[in-house]
């Protein structure tokens, strides 16, 4: 027998046996089925929305309504950017664009015509402040602002009124949402909330 070092995986029990397979480098396509030319950006937060996560099963006020429950959390846990006397501004958990906020009265009320003068004033004031804060943080080019009144009009939670403040930028409606039906969000919601709260105007 020839003296000398034993090749790894041969007769040396201290070394693992050599694999008969060539090493394979994983890619973004692994596990998605038949190979095709497309890369995939996964947006599981949208599936949670589609599946109805956090959607109340009742129209009643209370802990079953997320907009009633959120004000009882800390600002960080509830993703609240700012509070006023009769309403608050909170990040949308399933945003259409980065910085998508909602302005919500504390009171569980469905219809805009049912708001008190103080609630109308605070919803309007917080909407203005939300626009200013988003412009400071991310230089939004424009906004979509509005509320869907009733399920037939597209309100996800129709029983508790909420006004959307959606920042817009030139080119934000590109091939991703139009063709791929995918929205890419480059920042965690908690980080967005912290930036907006820090830059929220007081007037």
From TrEMBL:
Check the record and name the CDD domains matching this protein.
Answer: FHIT
**Taxonomic superkingdom:** Bacteria
| Active site: residue positions | 162
Spell out the PROSITE patterns in the cross-references.
HIT_2
Q: Motif (Histidine triad motif) spans which residues? A: 160-164
What residues bind substrate, as annotated?
Answer: 92, 164
Q: Where is the composition biased (Low complexity)?
A: 11-20
Span list, region Disordered: 1-32
Report the coiled-coil segments. Answer: none
**Record keywords, A-Z:** Nucleotide-binding
Q: What is this protein called?
A: HIT domain-containing protein
Chain ranges of the HIT domain = 66-175
Name any one GO molecular function.
Answer: nucleotide binding
Which InterPro entries does the record cross-reference, listed alphabetically? Answer: AP-4-A_phosphorylase (IPR052908), FHIT (IPR039383), HIT-like (IPR011146), HIT-like_sf (IPR036265)
Question: Which regions are flagged for Pro residues bias?
Answer: 1-10
* Organism, as annotated: Kribbella qitaiheensis
């Amino acid at each position: 027998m020839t003296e000398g070092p034993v090749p790894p995986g041969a007769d040396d029990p201290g070394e693992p046996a050599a694999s008969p397979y060539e090493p394979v480098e994983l890619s973004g396509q692994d596990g998605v089925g038949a190979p095709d030319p497309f890369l995939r950006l996964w947006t599981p937060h949208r599936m949670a929305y589609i599946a109805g996560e956090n959607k109340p099963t009742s129209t009643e006020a209370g802990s079953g309504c997320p907009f009633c429950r959120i004000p009882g959390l800390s600002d960080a846990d509830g993703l609240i950017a700012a509070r006023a006397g009769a309403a608050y501004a909170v990040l949308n958990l399933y945003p259409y664009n980065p910085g998508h906020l909602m302005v919500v009265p504390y009171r569980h009320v469905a219809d805009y015509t049912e708001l008190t003068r103080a609630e109308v004033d605070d919803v309007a004031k917080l909407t203005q402040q939300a626009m200013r804060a988003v412009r400071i943080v991310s230089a939004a080019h424009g906004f979509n602002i509005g509320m869907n009144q009733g399920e037939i009009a597209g309100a996800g939670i129709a029983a508790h009124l909420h006004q959307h403040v959606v920042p817009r930028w030139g080119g934000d409606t590109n091939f991703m949402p139009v063709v791929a039906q995918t929205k890419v969000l480059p920042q965690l919601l908690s980080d967005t909330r912290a930036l907006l709260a820090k830059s929220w105007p007081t007037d």
